[in-house]
Write the structure tokens for this entry.
Amino acid sequence: MLNRRHIRVKVMQTIYAFKGNESDDLSKNQKFLLFSIDNMYNLYLLLISLLLEVQKRAEDDISKKQKKHLATQEDKDPNRKFVNNELLQIIKENIQLKHQLENFKSVDWELDSEYVDVIFKAIISSDLYKEYMKTRISDFKEDKEFMVDIFKDIIAPNEKLYEYIEDKNLTWLDDLPTVNTTILKLLRKAKPTSSDSFFTPKLYKDLDDKQYAIDLFKKTILNQTALNKEIELKTQNWDSDRIANVDFVLLQMAICELQNFSSIPVKVTINEYLEIAKEYSTPKSSIFLNGILDKLVKEYENDGKLKKIGRGLM
């Protein structure tokens, strides 16, 4: 679920909020970093459980209509195609996901049922839903395509849901694109025979990624004096007050990565931090960072300071 760019963003945010210096105990801040990353999985559980809550809301709607005093023939014999959607049934019956959702206490959809209603009403008023419900019978392929389209076109871009997520946890807004992409991939790749672990994806690709997050944070903080000196030498013509704080943190991290992470290609490091700057800093930040990092890389190469392992890592 988590990619290296998002790890860099999490580290950037933690360093940006760091108020200490090299000699301080970093354990508290490291704990905050890992908690912030782990909390991303809670957002995944929130959104995947929303799909099940909407299905439940649809079932409740059918039940209420059937109990009406003056129920119509359609109320008495409703089209249960959405309620019986095969992909939703597979998600609902997934044992591992069910256990995780039982332990997930951050959000209670019963208390926030108005947002379930918002999504439910957006779905049933859509052309996608009306087209899907023209028939009463479907197969797994049609059910899956419908859920992919509903999530992509109605749930993920919903503004009310976005505001709800922002109110619940501000850091989730940065996680939202990654989590939405993960859910879409899972929905698209789902099969009738999907394993119990399919809808409980790993947060980190492997243990190396988790260690990378810790090492990038610690090595950047523990070498701030040396890193700041490198930056100052390359920005002598710049008023320090004109350098955005985010840019300064990104430069610290990028230089730290160039110097200390021998398996990461130079181009990857530079490109990743330029992309983060475009998203999180000023319009001209990526140009500024590119100029500084380009000069440093050329110096490191000339002085033999750039130690990279493996082919194609320059």
